Amino acid sequence: MKKSRSLRTRLTLLVAAAVAIAVAVSAVGCWYLVYRQLSWQINDSLWESKPPPDQVRYVQGHCSPNPTSDEWWQHGPPLREAVQIVYPDKSRCVMGSVGMKVSEKAKAAAQGPRDYRDFYDGEDDDGRPMRIMVANVFPDVSVMVGRPLHELNSSMRNLAVLLAGVAAGGVLLAAWAGLVVSRTALRPVGRLTKAVEHIAHTEDLDTRIPVEGEDEIARLSQSFNAMTASLAGSRDRQRQLVADAGHELRTPLTTLRTNIDLLLRSEQTGRQLDPGAKERLLVNVKAQFAELSSLVGDLLQLARGDTDHEPHVELALHDVVKAAVGRAELRGARVTTDLSPWFVVGNAVSLERAVLNLIENAAKFGPGGEVEVRLREGVVTVRDHGPGIPEEELPHVFERFWRSPSARGLPGSGLGLAIVAQAVAEAGGEVRLDNAPGGGVVATIKLPGNLTPHSESAKSG
C-alpha cells in the first residue's frame, strides 16, 4: 500500500506547484507579449520600407533577370529589406539579390484595392524564414517587402531560455518558502500532536496546550483543552461516584454479614435463637437487601452515559406527572393534583422517575404523607407541609449521597434528588428546592415546551 505523504510535505508541494503554475503562465505570457511587440515593430518597419511609386514604375520598365542595386537605387534610397514586384500571374521582378516565394496573398494583393496590405510569415527562394508584407501599388501590381526572421527567432530563443531559468529559480525559491511556511504554520499542530500522544500514552488528562492567537489552530487548541477538561471532570466524577458508592455499600453489607453470621452460628452450634429475635433478624436482613437493591438501581441510573439514554421524543408532561402520582399513591402517598396540559421533548421514563422521587421525598416529611403537585405552563411544583430544610443545607440537596442530618435515620440512599437533577438537565430544564411560605418545602421543575403538540402546531400553521 502506498504510504501517504505528511501534511507538511503536501503543503510544501502545493505551494511549489501553485507558484510553478503562476510562474509558467507569467513566463509564457511575457514571451508572447514580447513576440507580438517585436512582430508589430517589424510590420511597421516593413510598411515604412515600401518603395515609392516612381521607383516601382522604373522597375516595371527596366526589369531584368538579375538586376544590380545600382540600377534601381538611383531613383530612391537604398532598400534594407528584400523587395520584389508581383503581377496577377505570379510573375515577379526582384529588386535586389534576394527573391521571395510568391504566395497567393501576393497574387491577391495585386488584384486587390488600392492601399491593400497584409502581413504573413513566408520564405525566400532559399527557404529561409522571412516576415513579409504585401501591398497594392497600382492596378494589377503589388509589392512584396520581406525581412529575415533569424534575428527575431534568435532573440525569442534567448528570451525563452532566460524565462525558463527564472521560472526554475522561482519554483525552487517557492519550494523553500513553502517548506518554511509549512514548518511555521504547522508548529502548533505538532505541539497538539505531541500532547495527544502524551495523553494516549500516560492517560494524563490534566495536560493543557498553550493557546496562541485567535486563528483556527488556536481554536483547535482551545477545543482540545475543553475536551480534556471535560474528560477529566467525567473521570473525577466517576471516581467520586465509585468512592461514595463503596462508602454507602459498606454499612448495609456489614450489617448483612453480621446478621447472616449470627444466623449461621446459631445453626452450627445448635443454640436456637428466640423466635421473636430470629424474626426481627430476618426482617432486618430483608430490609437491608431492599436497601441494597434500591441503592444499586440508583447507582445504575446515575452511572449510565448519554449514549445509553433512550431517544428523546415529544411527550405530554401532564400524563407523565399523572403516572408518577399514581405510582406514589400505591406506595402510600396522599397526593393532591392540579395539572394543565404541557408538551415537552424528553424521556418519559426519566422524567417520571424524577417526579416520583420528588413526591416520595415530600411524602417522607409531610404530615400523613400529604403532597401537593401542580403543573402550569411547564412548571411542575411538588410541595409538602413538613418542617422544611435549613437554609445552609439547600445548596447541597442535589449532591450525590448527601443526606440531611435530620433524615439520616429514614430509609434512602441520598441519590434520589441527584437523579432528579440529572433527568431534568437531560430534558433541558431546571430544578430547585426552596422553603415554602407557611412551612414545608416546594420543589420546582421548569421544562421548555408548548401548550399543544408540535404536530398540531404544524398543522395549524
Per CATH, the class of the largest domain reads Alpha Beta
The SS-based structural class is alpha+beta
The CATH topology of the largest domain corresponds to: Heat Shock Protein 90
Q: For this structure, what is the CATH homologous superfamily of the largest domain?
A: Histidine kinase-like ATPase, C-terminal domain
The averaged pLDDT comes out at 78
Low-confidence regions:
65-79, 457-461
Number of domains: 3
Q: Alpha-carbon distance between the termini?
A: 57 Å
**CATH architectural name of the largest domain:** 2-Layer Sandwich
**What general form does the structure show?**
rod-shaped
Most strands sheet: 5 strands, antiparallel
Return the string of H and E elements: HHHEEHEEEHHHHEHEEHEEHEEH
Name the strands of the widest sheet in spatial order. Answer: 2-1-5-4-3
